[in-house]
Amino acid sequence: FSKEDAVLSILFFFSEINDGEGHPSSSHQVLKGTSRWATSLENLLEDPEGVKRFREFLKKEFSEENVLFWLACEEFKKTQGKKQMQEKAKEIYMTFLSSKASSQVNVEGQSRLSETILETPHPLMFQKLQDQIFNLMKYDSYSRFLKSDIFLNHKKSEEQEENSPEAQTAAKRASRIYNT
User: What's one GO MF term for it (predicted)?
Assistant: First the structure.
């Protein structure tokens, strides 16, 4: 067990306890924030801060309804009870899919999805349309987001935080313990 191994195990221990901001951390999530967002749209959409920044970007591109629809479909899949499903399905339909929708998404086949389907809802009833929107975001908006000022500025501020004296304190303490 070398000094380096000891320091690494202490650092690993500290990273398991928290992520430097007092939030619980996990070794499964080695990449954080913008580094994780940049690996895939899926990772971006799993992070509330990533969703917030992506929405901010999409709003500037006049396509925020895409991520809002995708999120609404994710929530819909978790809905329990026929009555609640009917209400949420109608809300999704009226907000995103109807010809009079306030935030209409541009999907193929939306005209074939009539209001009659809302009577017998099921968790995956919007899946095909949700997949279309996901692919639209993945192959269009997401790559532009990664080059946007919103993403790059957030990445820069993250890097500044990581390089701040506070962020390095735990590592230095661990290093001092084993360099006696």
Answer: G-protein alpha-subunit binding
Q: Domains in the chain, please, with CATH? A: 3-14+31-150 (1.10.167.10)
pTM of the model: 0.72
Structure tokens at 25: 């951390």
122-155, pLDDT tens digit by residue? Answer: 999 999 999 999 999 999 999 999 999 999 999 9
What is the Cα Rg of the chain in Å?
22
**Which of 58, 19, 54 has its CA nearest to residue 40?**
54
Helix, strand, coil: what percent of the chain each, to 5? 70, 0, 30
What tens digit of pLDDT does each residue of 44-60 get?
999 999 999 999 999 99
Task: Output the CA–CA distances (angstroms, integers) from residue 94 to 36, 55, 70, 91, in the order listed.
Answer: 34, 21, 15, 5
Judge contact between 77 and 123, C-beta under 8 A.
Answer: yes
pLDDT averaged per 10 residues, the chain (length 180) = 47 42 45 90 96 97 96 96 93 91 84 72 92 96 97 92 69 55
Alpha-carbon distance of 34 to 59, in angstroms, equals 19
Give Cβ neighbours of residue 137 (< 8 Å, ≥ 6 apart).
Answer: 41, 66, 67, 70
143 token code pair: 């790559």
